[in-house]
Design goal:
Elements: E1 3-7, H1 10-16, E2 21-24, H2 30-42, E3 45-47, E4 65-72, H3 78-91, H4 104-122
Parallel strand pairs: 1-2
Antiparallel strand pairs: 1-4, 3-4
Helix pairs in contact: 1-4, 2-3
Protein name: GrdX protein
Organism: Fusobacterium ulcerans 12-1B
InterPro entries: GrdX-like (IPR047735)
Length: about 130
């Protein structure tokens, strides 16, 4: 399946850059990435991976990678409502930490977790 990855994680970028389209946004936060994903959804791309936190343990992770379809589709509004709802939920997440508030060791762990979540998620893509 062809897909585009939108990420702020250099580990994801380096892993996928040879085989997929990857839009890498260094130091963009979660809400910034969601706004970028929203732009793609409004262009007709389809959301393929879960843009919300996978679990509470991962909610502090400043890295996020989201997959959208490479192709565009006509949308009945469902995709737009979905991403708008995700952004609304994300704005309610209290006190998300900045990159600078974590040690490099912790950031590397977060990068690895994000890569694994995306890789596991891409195994089930179908549309």
């Amino acid at each position: 399946m062809d897909f585009i990855i939108i990420t702020n994680n250099n580990k994801v970028y380096n892993f996928y850059k040879e085989t997929n389209d990857v839009f890498y946004f260094q130091k963009k936060d979660f809400l910034d990435l969601l706004e970028i994903v929203k732009e793609e959804i409004y262009k007709g791309h389809k959301l393929l991976s879960d843009p919300i936190m996978y679990n509470l343990e991962n909610s502090e992770n400043p890295y996020k990678s989201i997959a959208v379809s490479k192709d565009t589709f006509s949308d009945d509004g469902t995709q737009k409502k979905l991403i708008d709802g995700v952004i609304s939920i994300a704005r309610k997440i209290p006190n998300r930490k900045n990159f600078s508030e974590f040690s490099e060791t912790t950031l590397e762990e977060f990068r690895f977790i994000d890569l694994n979540l995306l890789t596991d998620g891409t195994k089930s893509f179908s549309y």
